[in-house]
Every structure is written in structure tokens, then in C-alpha cells.
Amino acid sequence: MSQQQNKQVVLHERPQRGPITDTTFKIQQSEIKQPGEGEVLVKVEYVSIDPTMRGWLNDVRSYLPPVQIGAVMRATSLGRVVKSNDSNFKEGDLVFDTFGWQEYWTGPGKAIQKRVTPEGGRDIDHMGLYGLTGMTAYIGLFEIGKLKDGDHVVISGAAGAVGQIATQIAVAHPKCTVTAIAGSQEKLDYLKKLGAHNVLNYKDADFKKKFKEVGTIDVYFDNVGGEILDLALGQLNPYARIIACGAISAYNAEKPTPIYNYFNLVSMKSTMRGFIVLDHADKFQEGAKYLSDLVKEGKLKADYHVTYGLDTCVGTLRDMFEGKNFGKTVVSLKEQKEESEKSKL
Ligand SMILES: NC(=O)c1ccc[n+]([C@@H]2O[C@H](COP(=O)([O-])OP(=O)(O)OC[C@H]3O[C@@H](n4cnc5c(N)ncnc54)[C@H](OP(=O)(O)O)[C@@H]3O)[C@@H](O)[C@H]2O)c1
């Protein structure tokens, strides 16, 4: 290996309420740490960009501890083993874990997962379709949302990573009607192509009126929280299920959005349940099989928004909050672009 330096993006200072700034992160070089007994050295190929990263920067109690000042930014990642002192791994193995926003990771082999890409498959799908993104859509709809035949399913953030998979699962489910919500006409066109029956732009002046027109809701897959959640609560069917997946509208907000329609959970005997996908690992194999069957039937495809080089991580995270991504967002650290990375509807 000729390169001896490891480029890393570390947390420099915690952002106050609101978006990350130019001084939130800094880039540094460090020596590549050589693997000790039982350890492997991984060259990272893809790092994930996720809305939840904004929450990891706050010094508050959450489902994971905050990223510490000076630490490499936490991120799920895919890479290849370049040196191994663990007999379970050899050079060239594809591996997945939380390697972070950096070019190399060194650590115990027992802490990471080996991944195999099936013949004709794409490595990048370990970051999206068959990774936590696909599992979030699957667990959300079936475990939390108890999706049933004939449900009217409403999905917010529908053209994003989780949303695009959830939309296609619901479209493929027998007799379901799917209303997909996103923030631009280009995204609505994309969602129509994915089979959504109704598409709504939440930035339109008459969005509230159009939302009412789509009718009452059996399942609401909530990726955004805030005002759209409140509207959905206002038009629940009896025994509706609200999948509290995320609340991206709140992550950078200065203050919370009031929820006026909370009592409908009582009067409509409905359930709103939050979940963290990591708690459902026992269902991942089943989920991957379900999703790959849909792919084989031509009912599901996954799109990726790919930027190149570690220097793009911070800007790409910022862009996500402005809706610039279609599908799952990743940063590729590979030297060459692959065909699979260039695809977009
Ligand atoms: N519970 C879990 O285990 C779990 C796991 C993964 C993700 N999540 C959550 O799921 C949600 C979606 O995550 P993702 O990775 O799929 O992200 P994503 O949807 O790929 O990207 C975020 C999208 O949210 C939309 N958005 C940004 N600001 C918004 C606002 N103020 N109001 C409404 N929409 C806004 C943007 O699209 P538009 O152009 O449409 O605005 C943007 O493209 C997030 O809330 C995330 O935290 C939860």
C-alpha cells in the first residue's frame, strides 16, 4: 500500500439549533493504524449520508450516544479488507459496519460483518436496498404499520432513501392505494413512475386542500413529522397505524411544530409507534428475501444519489436537508465510478 495517510472528517464543534455550519466539521489526516492481533484494516468504499446524523451531533440522550468532539463522524459504511490478522477475513473481503467518514478503518474483525454481493448484483445495494434503508421500509410497513390488503398508505419523504422503497412495497401490496408526498415536481414525476396512485407536493400553496382530497388514511409512514404529521392525524381511519420513522422537518428546526390533531389517536382508536431499525435485526434476513423477490418480479428498484470523495460528505449532508437527493444518499470513496452508481431514473 503506497498511501500511508488516512483522510478523516471529524466533528470540530457542535452546531447550535439549526443547520450544520462551515465549522461543524473539519478534515484531518492521520497515520493509517496497522492491524494488531485479531484486527483487520479496511479500505472504505462507500459511506452513508443520513438525516439522523444531524441528531448525533447534539449532546442529548438518544438511541446512540452523541459523536464526540474530535471523533471521526459516525457513518455506516462498506469497504474491503486490505490487511487481516483475523483468520475469518482475507484480503478483498467485502465488509460492512460503522467505519465512519474516513478512508481507512482498523479494528477487531469480530466487530464487523462480511457481505457477499450475489452474481450480477451491485455492492452499493448493501448501503441501501439490502442495508438499513430497505430494512427500515420493510420493518416500518410490516412490523410497525401492520400493512394489510386494501390499505390507503400515505408516505412522506417518499422520494428519499426509505420513502422510495416504502412506496414501491406499498404499491406492490394487494389492493393498496398509495399517496406519496415529496417536495418538487421532479420528485412527483419520479414517484408516479414508481406506481404511486396520488402524488402531492407539500410545498404547493394548496397542499392542505389536496391532502384532504386523497381521503382518510389507514397507514401513515412518517419520515418528516411536523405539519404533515398533524394533517395525517387529522384524517385517520379507525384503527389506523402511524409509523413514526423519522421527523426530518424537526432536525434543524429552531422550535417544535405544534400538533393539534393528537386526540384523533384516541377517537380513531389508532396506534402511533416509533421504532429504530437496529432493534429488528432478527427480521433482516426475512426482509432481504422479501425485497429481493420484489426485485425479481420487476416491482422494486433502488436509486442512489452518489457524490464522490470524502470532501463531499458535509455538503451532501447539508443538501439532503434541502431535498437535493433522490433515493439513498452515499459518498463513494472509490477511485472509479461504476455503472451502478451512475443510474438514476
Ligand atoms: N427509525 C429508523 O430506524 C430510521 C432509519 C432510517 C431513517 N430514518 C428516518 O427516516 C427519514 C427518511 O430518511 P432517509 O434516509 O430516507 O432520508 P431521505 O428521505 O433520503 O432524505 C431526506 C429527504 O427529506 C426531505 N425533507 C428535507 N427537509 C424536509 C422538511 N423540512 N419537510 C419535509 N421533508 C423534508 C427531502 O426531500 P423533499 O425534496 O421531498 O423535501 C430530503 O430529500 C428520516 O427522518 C430519518 O431520520 C429512521
From TrEMBL:
Database matches in CDD domains = PGDH (cd05288)
What Pfam families would the database entry show?
A: ADH_N_2, ADH_zinc_N
What are the recorded GO MF terms, alphabetically?
Answer: oxidoreductase activity, acting on the CH-CH group of donors, NAD or NADP as acceptor
Keyword tags: Oxidoreductase
**Can you give the residue ranges of the Enoyl reductase (ER) domain?**
18-331
The record's section on PANTHER family has: ALCOHOL DEHYDROGENASE, ZINC-CONTAINING (AFU_ORTHOLOGUE AFUA_7G04530) (PTHR43205:SF42), PROSTAGLANDIN REDUCTASE (PTHR43205)
Query: What is the protein name stated in its UniProt record?
Result: Enoyl reductase (ER) domain-containing protein
